[in-house]
Structures are given as structure tokens and as C-alpha cells.
């Protein structure tokens, strides 16, 4: 049965035994040798395929090129064989923390992989690049890799269920550093004390403000999870060498809860698997059909349908106003409630448009589709009829949709809302959507065939057909892969893909 860990700040003179600290509880989950359920292993395969899909589609994008060039400047360290880098041949090996960096940016750049939303929000597949990099570097097989990924998902999702970071303007990757460190602890069969110290160090080094997702959003949005993964690997390395972390990291008088989260009087209840309980949290997460912030997924599906059923809605001359009634999070983070003028700026960055549901709803309504590149192109964002319609779209918080957003009942948990469209002729169109079509409770839930199709569609411009089939054959056998096969679990760009791509220069 799941255990609830009640966490609060403790004064320095209070006694807080190690075994009662949250970091210690996380370490105990990591070292528990519980088997991985078959359906969990199957979903891990899906997410490994999903990560490779979105990485393949981003190989020539500037942040990914920059991160990859940094990684290639750091050859494999002496402690192992090194790890592969997405886009390079499997024989190219770099130090694992830098492989996690490059691959993490590639996975995150298009905002197109899986998600879990609760008290906080997250992209738990961000755990995969650092765990895979360490598996390749240390020669681990598929069974160990699957167990480790299950831990990474479990810890991140359990923290996200209980502890809100964004409420205190802390970026969501503060839950990723500890989860990746715990996953690596599982992978390497580390002892509880080492995992405890690694979790504390990873958390300590990955807390940052949410300015990376506010106003003019920069390319750091893609780098932040990769940085957390890189820091997790370095934290594990230090802990394995006997170095220690701030203790207690969550509960200390000057710790994370007291000064970065709810303050000295805050209380959190974190659900963690009890000893012997299977790690199944990955099954509560969901991937994206569209390259956009997850809270926009359902709105894209609704807008596509409305535009097809009512073509007149595509013409701004017919529209008086469009109001999206939605959850607190959607309104204040990607909606007009954020108060960011950049969310209505046709010259805004891709990262900013990705976090503007008024823009996203407008383009999906007009185009009847969503594309990871075309829908964000400057010429698309600047189209006069789009700008005119876009500025008629606003959001407002609806208490019921906020309640459903935070519901613990999967059957009513929702990430959409109700749209009310006022036409200039006085007529109204009202419709609603609770979850995206690809959601497990949506109109077309994603299954293995959909993950494979997503990979083929996104990888086709970047990889040779034989490389696509090679990767899929390996990935679908993930739990049984040998260490040599895990070392091949990467994607190599087709010849000529990088022609004309300018490599940036820096210190390394």
C-alpha cells in the first residue's frame, strides 16, 4: 500500500531522524528491488520511442545543435565506455553527463513528449536521457534500464502529485533532479545512503526560478531539464565518492520548503510506494499528439473540430469574441491571465507562442491541423487575419475546470475547458472538451501503433529508412536488451542532414 510521507520544516534543534526525511524515503524506493510490471515495461518502451521521435525532429534546431556541439567537445570519461549522442553514430561516445545534456535538449526542444500534471507539472520522460546515458557508460542491460526508468517516473510523478513549485515561482525541474538521481541509483544498484546523498545534491543544484517560462521565453526552456539531468549524474558521481549533501535538504530550517516553497509552516503529503509495491506511476502520465504545452493539447483538438464544422469561424470578420473558460493553471500560465503581452505578439519566439493558448487556438481553428514547425513559423504567426482573430481570444478561470484539473479521480481529471464564441451576427457557439484526443480517456488514446507512427513521421526527414527500422526493432525489445544492444539505443542522422548547419563556438 502507498505510504504518505508528511513533510514539514524542522528547526535545527529539533531531532529529525534520517529515516524520517523525504530524501531518505525516496532513496528507499530507489533501492527496492521490486519487479517491473509488464504493462509498465510496455509503456516505458513507448516513451523511449516517443523521446527518440521528438529528438529526431529537432536535430537541426539551433539549441540542439549547440548542446550537441558542447557534448562532442567532452570525450568519454575514464570511468566507463561513454554514452551516445542523438544524431551521431553509435561509435561516437562522450562523457555521460554531456550525453544527457545534449539528448535532454533534443528531447525537450519541441515541447512534444510526455506530461504529468497535478499540484505541479512535469515531463517525466526527461528522466530517460540521463538514465540511459549512465546505462550506456556503465554497460547495463535492458532489464536494469527499465527498472531505473520506472523509478525515475515514480519519484517525479509522486513529487508532482504533492508539491507545487510554480506557486512559489520555482521551475518544475526541481522535481526532476531528485527523480533522475534516484533512477540512476536504481540502475547502478547503489546503497540507500549513496542515493540519499545524491538526491539531496541533485535537488540543491536544480532549484531555479520560473522566469525561464515567463514573458519572453528563451531557448533555456529546452535546456533546463537537460541541466537537471546533467546535475543528477554529477550528484551521483560525487555521492559515490563519499561526498555528502545539505541535510535535511527538504525539511531543514534553511532548506527548500522553508525558503523556496511554502515556508516554515507549510505541510506536504507525498505518496510513495511502500516496500515491495510496484512502481506504476508512468501509467498515470500521457504523451502529446501535438507540439505544444500540454494544457493546449485539448484546445487544439477542439479548435480543429470547430473550424471544420464551422468554417465561418476562421474569418475574424465574423467573430466578436472567443473566451476559453478553463483551469487556473491554463489561464495564468499559457492564457491571458499571465498578463504577458508577448502572448499576443506575432514576432514572439517559438517558445513564447508555445505557451500562448490564444495563439494556439487561433491557428488550429484556422488551419484545421497543428504542425511542430509550420504552426510556429514567423510568416504563420504574422498573417494579418490570424493576428486579428488571435487578439479576440481570451481566457478566464472557471472554478469547476480548476477543480477537475486537480481532481484525484482519473475519470474526471481534465485539462480542457469550455469555449464560448460570440459571432458578430449575434449568434453564439458553445462547446467543451475535457481531455485531448490522445489522452488515455480521449477520443483516440495513444497506443503502441501511435507511438511508432509518431516516430516514423517525425524521423523520416532526419533518418535513413534502415535507421528508423533498426531503432524501432531495438526499442521494442528494450527489457531484454544486452548491454551491447543498450549501447546502440540511439539514432544516427542521415547523410547530408547537417549540411549548411553552422556549429557555434564557445569555450570548449
From TrEMBL:
Residues 290-478 form the MmgE/PrpD C-terminal domain. Its EC number is 4.2.1.79. The keyword Lyase applies. Residues 20-268 form the MmgE/PrpD N-terminal domain. GO terms for molecular function: 2-methylcitrate dehydratase activity. It catalyses: (2S,3S)-2-methylcitrate = 2-methyl-cis-aconitate + H2O. Pfam families: MmgE_PrpD_C, MmgE_PrpD_N. Keywords: Lyase. InterPro entries: MmgE/PrpD_sf, MmgE/PrpD_sf_1, MmgE/PrpD_sf_2, MmgE_PrpD, MmgE_PrpD_C, MmgE_PrpD_N. Belongs to the PrpD family. PANTHER family: 2-METHYLCITRATE DEHYDRATASE (PTHR16943:SF8), 2-METHYLCITRATE DEHYDRATASE-RELATED (PTHR16943). Monomer. This is 2-methylcitrate dehydratase. It comes from Amnibacterium flavum. The lineage of its organism: Bacteria, Bacillati, Actinomycetota, Actinomycetes, Micrococcales.
Amino acid at each position: 500500500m502507498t505510504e504518505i510521507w508528511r513533510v514539514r520544516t524542522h528547526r535545527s534543534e529539533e531531532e529529525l531522524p534520517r529515516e524520517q526525511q523525504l530524501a531518505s524515503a525516496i532513496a528507499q524506493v530507489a533501492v527496492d528491488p521490486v519487479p517491473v510490471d509488464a504493462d509498465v515495461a510496455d509503456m516505458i518502451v513507448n516513451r523511449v520511442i516517443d523521446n527518440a521521435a521528438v529528438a529526431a525532429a529537432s536535430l537541426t534546431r539551433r539549441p540542439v545543435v549547440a548542446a550537441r556541439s558542447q557534448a562532442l567537445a567532452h570525450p568519454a570519461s575514464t570511468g566507463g565506455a561513454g554514452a551516445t549522442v542523438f544524431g551521431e553514430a553509435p561509435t561516437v561516445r562522450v562523457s555521460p553527463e554531456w550525453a544527457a545534456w545534449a539528448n535532454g535538449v533534443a528531447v525537450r526542444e519541441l515541447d512534444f513528449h510526455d506530461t504529468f500534471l497535478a499540484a505541479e507539472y512535469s515531463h517525466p520522460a526527461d528522466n530517460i536521457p540521463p538514465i540511459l546515458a549512465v546505462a550506456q557508460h556503465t554497460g547495463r542491460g535492458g532489464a536494469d534500464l527499465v527498472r531505473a526508468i520506472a523509478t525515475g517516473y515514480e519519484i517525479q510523478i509522486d513529487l508532482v502529485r504533492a508539491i507545487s513549485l510554480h506557486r512559489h515561482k520555482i521551475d518544475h525541474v526541481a522535481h526532476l533532479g531528485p527523480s533522475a538521481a534516484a533512477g540512476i541509483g536504481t540502475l547502478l544498484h547503489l546503497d540507500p545512503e549513496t542515493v540519499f546523498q545524491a538526491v539531496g545534491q541533485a535537488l540543491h543544484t536544480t532549484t531555479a526560478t520560473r522566469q525561464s517560462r515567463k514573458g519572453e521565453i528563451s531557448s533555456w526552456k529546452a535546456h533546463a531539464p537537460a541541466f537537471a539531468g546533467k546535475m543528477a549524474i554529477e550528484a551521483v558521481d560525487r555521492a559515490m565518492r563519499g561526498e555528502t549533501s545539505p541535510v535535511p535538504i527538504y525539511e531543514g530550517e534553511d532548506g527548500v520548503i522553508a525558503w523556496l516553497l511554502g515556508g516554515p509552516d507549510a505541510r506536504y503529503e507525498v505518496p510513495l510506494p511502500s516496500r515491495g509495491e510496484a512502481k506504476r506511476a508512468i501509467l498515470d502520465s500521457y504523451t502529446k499528439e501535438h507540439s505544444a504545452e500540454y494544457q493546449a493539447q485539448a484546445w487544439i483538438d477542439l479548435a480543429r473540430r470547430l473550424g471544420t464544422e464551422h468554417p465561418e469561424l476562421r474569418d475574424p470578420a465574423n467573430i466578436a469574441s472567443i473566451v476559453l473558460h478553463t483551469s487556473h493553471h491554463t489561464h495564468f500560465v499559457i492564457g491571458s491571465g499571465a498578463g504577458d503581452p508577448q502572448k499576443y505578439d506575432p514576432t514572439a519566439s517559438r517558445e513564447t507562442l508555445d505557451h500562448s493558448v490564444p495563439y494556439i487556438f487561433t491557428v488550429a481553428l484556422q488551419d484545421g491541423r497543428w504542425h511542430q514547425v509550420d504552426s510556429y513559423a514567423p510568416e504563420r504567426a504574422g498573417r494579418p487575419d490570424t493576428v486579428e482573430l488571435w487578439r479576440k481570444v481570451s481566457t478566464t478561470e472557471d472554478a469547476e475546470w480548476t477543480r477537475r484539473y486537480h481532481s484525484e479521480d482519473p475519470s474526471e481529471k481534465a485539462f480542457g475547458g469550455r469555449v464560448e464564441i460570440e459571432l458578430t451576427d449575434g449568434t453564439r457557439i458553445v462547446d467543451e472538451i475535457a481531455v485531448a484526443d490522445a489522452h488515455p480517456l480521449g477520443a483516440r488514446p495513444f497506443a503502441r501503433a501511435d507511438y511508432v507512427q509518431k516516430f516514423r513521421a517525425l524521423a523520416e526527414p532526419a533518418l535513413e529508412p534502415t535507421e528508423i527500422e533498426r531503432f524501432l526493432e531495438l526499442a521494442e525489445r528494450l527489457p531484454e536488451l544486452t548491454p551491447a544492444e543498450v549501447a546502440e539505443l540511439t539514432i544516427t542522422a542521415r547523410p547530408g542532414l547537417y549540411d549548411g548547419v553552422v556549429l557555434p563556438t564557445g569555450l570548449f
